[in-house]
Amino acid sequence: MKPFSGLNRFLRRLPLNLIVIFLIVIWFIPTFGVFVSSFRSREAVRTSGWWTVFQKQPVVGEAEYNEYCASCHGADGSEIPEADLSDPVVVENYPRSNRLLAYLKKPLQNGEPHVQDPSLPENPNEALELLAPILDYMGTLSGSGGSQEVAALSLRNYADALVGYKGTQDYLTDCEEGVESTLAKFDCNLSDIIKPEGMGRAFINTLIVTIVASVLPILFAAFAAYAFAWMDFPGRMWIFALLVGLQIIPLQMALIPISQLYTRVGLANTFWGIWIFHTAFGLPYAIYLMRNFLGSLPREIFESVYIDGASHWTAFWKLAMPLSIPAIASLAIFQFIWIWNDFLVAKIFLTGKPVLTVQITNLIDPRGGNWHIMTGAAFLSFIVPMIVFFGLQRFFVRGLTAGSVKG
Amino acid sequence: MAASKIMKQGPVVPWLYVLPAFILILIFVVYPTVNTIYLSFMDKTGELPASANCVAGEPCWGIFENYRYALTNSEMTTALKNNALWLLLMVPATLGFGLLIAVLADRVRYESLVKAVIFMPMAISFIGAGVIWQFMYAFISGSGSQIGVLNGIMVGLGFDPVPWLSTAVINNLALMMVGVWLWAGFCMVILSAALKGLPSEVIEAARVDGASEWNIFWKIMIPMILPTITVVATTMVIIILKIFDIVFVMTGGNFGTEVIANRMFKLIVTDTGRSMAIAVILLFLTIPIMIINVRRFRAQEEMR
Asked: For the range A121-126, what are the long-range contacts, defined as Cβ-Cβ under 8 Å and sequence gap of 24 or more?
């Protein structure tokens, strides 16, 4: 049975692999579909499923050409050297189908009639109707034009999303054609990227919010965590237990009181306001995680530096901080992705400066007329977290599991 | 007690380290919580007691008037019911998928690929997920071309397309599917770490004794990772209680898909008192989890 052991093994493992692959596909399809859609035109997104991109689209006139002309001129048009339809110079002699029809009715240079197989309809209108797509296809064959379809896939949705275009065509076309309503709003140059209604500006806002709000809590948390781990003070355990409880206070609890407070002290709609808010709500988990990490470091190292006369301040900066780089990295990435994807806090505390998530909802057209822009907008918002996520997945996973898995 | 008296320090020093964080938490977490509870007993202006909302001839709970709304108003009862449904279905679903994938992925050679794909939605915002799933659920009436994948399949198989997001009951399940898609990866990662941390001798010994893989899974692995399962389950409960963005962006809470946090958000501008009463109910629902977490923490500390 030896020759079949490999096959047997394969068959035994087949159901397992099929289930796993099935699950992967299920998980992957939704994102993939929007990714494909983000390159499709407004009309295509609105009227047909994204999967039709993978079905072969019939080329205009191909069927008619094959029926009437291909028997003599060949499928690629170059069968008869004296009348090479793949030569643009030849094809450009017939800009319109009536010129072509007139030519087809005339005898050829050697005096014989132009063979048509099968012959064209007698009625000139019918013949013209048939010749139009054939001419189109000759243009495609010769590369001299043919029907100028808008390229099936393009980056236009991304351009629309970046600048926050809400018109009826698309931003790039409007700029080319000089459509007035668009020119009134946009400058049609790179500066449009930071227009307040676009994803470009929102991208910058999100970066500003996220970077500061991921670093600040770690700084505060590190100090507190150090004290909880390596100092002795009354009520230490109780306060820490309280912190564990506070971790899950819904941030909904703070929305109204804090926005009232912010209005009073002038922090409403400022980056400072949202930075501090995210910092405060990130702190309980950050302290918890950092304290567990610092507390698990070997006690001897700390003892030896204390015996050498180092103060807590020195031990914190020279010993605890360098050693906790892995924990800090995990925490920073966890916090980064969390804040990048936040919607509620930004929606309430930063109304004048929309972040990506808020801007996406601003772009929603209640009548569903701009789905194509939403796809581009969504993917623009994914770029950074995806890079961070796939580049630093190890740290992100550690940041998640450290809080939950014991040890 | 890792830290006890390693180095003597004055009574003030520890507080200097703790204080910056503490002041922030006091201002942003503790004070608002107290204030929110206070506001939940006030009317929509926040200046008069909630009983000012009472209308003569209609039921009134006096100072608890906002809570009467939060517990008896038909939109709120729908929201409460839906949150219960979310908890009941989505916690087992995320845990189940997470565990299934963790176990299966462990047995194939492309484990890291499987995990990356399943975990990827965690990098995506709820809002982004909403956009993504609109293209799964989109509905165009008639048997013409569909732009949503699910209805594309339905029509392809010869059925009528289904308005997934506006048909009662189905729409709640559809929204939960988005939640499972987003969070199963989270469960998978943590459960997979726990499974990999199991001592291999125990499992090998069971195999040598002739235990089937099925029995090993249910009778050895599951009991051994039960503490981790509890942690993941409690985390999921918290996340689901606060579920908001998915509903907000996909149905806006219409067609019977309302949830507590979305209701709260809708009222935040128009009626502070009611909105805050809903927030307090949300807090109230999280208290059991809070107690479980603190207890678990204390048990862990005693084992140190």
From this structure: none
DSSP-assigned letters across all residues of A330-387: HHHHHHHHHHHT--HHHHHH-TTS--HHHHHHHH--TT-TTHHHHHHHHHHHHHHHHH
Give this prediction's pTM: 0.81
| pLDDT value of position A209 | 95
Q: Which of B13, B261, B289 sits opposite A252 (nearest CB)?
A: B261
How close A37 comes to chain B (CA, Å)? 9
Interval A295-347: pLDDT, tens = 888 888 888 888 888 888 888 998 889 988 888 888 888 889 889 999 999 99
The yes/no answer to whether this complex scores an ipTM above 0.90 is no
Q: Kindly write down the DSSP assignment for every residue of B28-43, as one continuous string.
A: IIIHHHHHHHHHTTB-
Q: What is the pLDDT of residue A57?
A: 65
Within A108-170, where are the H helices? 124-142, 156-163
Contact call for A279 and B24, based on CB within 8 A: yes
**Phi and psi dihedrals of A84, rounded to 5?**
-80, 105
Interface test with B, best of A16, A18, A20 (most B CBs within 10 A): A20
pLDDT for the residue A407: 31
Q: How far is B80 from chain A (nearest CA, A)?
A: 16
Angle at A133 between CA A132 and CA A138, to 5 degrees: 100
Residue A76: pLDDT band with limits 50, 70, 90? confident
Residue numbers in A near B109 (CB within 8 A): none
Structural domain spans, chain A: 2-54, 62-142, 156-191, 199-404
Cα four-point dihedral sign A215, A220, A221, A222? positive
**CATH code assigned to A199-404:** 1.10.3720.10
Q: Could A302 and B197 be called an inter-chain contact, meaning their C-beta atoms sit closer than 8 Å?
A: no
Contact B268 A51 (CB under 8 A): no
Mean pLDDT by 10 residues, chain B (304 residues): 54 85 90 90 81 75 85 90 94 95 90 90 90 90 82 89 90 94 91 88 88 87 90 89 88 90 88 90 89 84 73
Q: Are B54 and B65 within 8 A, CB to CB?
A: yes
Burial A265-291 (b: 16+ CB within 10 A, else e): eebbbebebbbbbbbbbbbbbbbbbbb
**Angle, in degrees to the nearest 10, between helices B126-137 and B170-196:** 120
In our burial notation (b when 16+ CB lie closer than 10 A, e otherwise), range B224-240 reads bbebbbebbbbbbbbbb
Sorted by where each starts, the structural domains of chain B and their CATH numbers stand as 64-303 (1.10.3720.10)
Which pLDDT tens digit goes with each residue over B27-51? 988 899 999 999 899 888 777 787 7
Question: Number of A:B CB contacts under 8 A?
Answer: 286
Residue A58 pLDDT > 70, yes or no?
A: no
Chain A residue whose CA is closest to B282: A250
The predicted structure's pLDDT at residue B4? 42
